[in-house]
Amino acid sequence: MTIDYAGALIPDLEAGFIAMQEVDPARAAVPLLAAGKIYVDHDFHGASSLQRMPFYRDFLAPLGIGHYALLPVAGDTEYLPVMSIQREAGRRTFTPRELQLMQAVQPHLRNALSLRQQLRHQRAESLILKSTLDSLSFPLLACSPQGRVVTGNTAGQRWLRTPGCPLSDNAIPVPATLRRLLEQACGRDTAEPTSGSLMLADDDILVTLPLCAHGGVHWHDALALVAIQGPRWRKPPPGTLLRAMFGLTPAEIRLVHHLMRHDEPLPAVAEQLRLSLNTVRTQLRAIFQKTHTRRQSDLIRLVGQLALLRSDACP
Length: 315
Hints:
Layout: E1 2-5, H1 11-20, H2 30-34, E2 39-40, H3 41-45, H4 47-50, H5 54-60, E3 65-72, E4 79-88, H6 96-134, E5 140-143, E6 149-152, H7 154-160, H8 176-185, E7 196-199, E8 205-210, E9 224-229, H9 240-246, H10 250-261, H11 266-273, H12 277-291, H13 296-306
Parallel strand pairs: 1-4
Antiparallel strand pairs: 2-3, 3-4, 5-6, 5-9, 7-8, 8-9
Helix pairs in contact: 10-12, 11-12
């Protein structure tokens, strides 16, 4: 079992802790910590015996630390994050009231760790998604209704630096026609967010698409997808956008393409694709989750809008 002290330690303190970790008496309390209980050194070992332990005599005492407690934040059989609370030497041991406060803060520490882990996962997913979007040869951007660029692929960042780009920092506020398209893609004054297009110089076409296929977000807080198409931008292979934007698997892309071509019930779809009905339903649920759609009509509308990007979303 690895005990991980959440948060950063002073370099000298961290080096000493690593060197002394094997003799840390808290290791004897791993079952207690794994059960979610707070470890208090003087309660677990007895205050009189602590000073004879090398961990206290050779490591904590020179640092001016007399006692410490460990609050388990989360954990399993291999990994146990804890928060350490130290009390300087010469002061009283932890009181029952202080232990109650430690117990009260434990749920908040667990939530904080969970949020940190979620953030790490989202950052990893974002890096993977950006790497995939960077493989697209045409500009692809996410924009606010006001025309502020939130993120984009490498081609999109290059396009923003071209002279006369309507979404560059120098173009704020964006042209009224483009802003109206962005607002419509975000759902302003429309029953459903709608796609649109605008001719640009050099035979480029600016296409605006809803970033999510259903409501629940006020149009002012929504984002629009902006793509630039034209003769100078290479056409991506079939299914590229569905894979790059939503992480659909080949099997899921195949199902989407079939649904776009054939208006038939799921049992007939399963028969045509030579899959079980349960497999088709499982794939469709995964597609709904990944594309933020709720029903087949939402999904078909979304893929139809992606077809504006000449991506062969539905070959």
